[in-house]
# Entry
Amino acid sequence: MTSESFNDQGFSAEMPGSYGSTSGTDSRGPRPLIEELMVFSLPAEIAALRQEAPYRDGDRNSATLAKEVDFRVLLTVLRNGASLEEHDGEARSSIQVLDGAAGLTVGSEQEADLEVGEVGVIDAGSPWRLRATADCAVLLTLAWPREKAGV
# Structure
């Protein structure tokens, strides 16, 4: 960190990284999007996402855990049948199933069923679609080559 002063949420007044911090919501306070070290309790984050209105009243909810111009870590909870898609496939991606199960389709032909503890890794240039085959929680990581990220 570049500063020893912290705001009332305990975050440094000088946020490192290009994106600073999340704006927060009614149920989530703001938090930094990138720091030298970030640690998350995934079971606690999953439970919190499932308590929020987008999941209670809909079919999904997500939280960005880390974000920088060439990197993203997202935690998503999906109800059975809900899906996520990456149309351009420019980023290398990994999708780890933390709870439940999901089907992963890469391009138009490659398919895999992912269960708890399994991770699918998708190379850059491959569009993909993830469809929950049971209520599930997934950890999605996206990484772009720095030249494609505009850095």
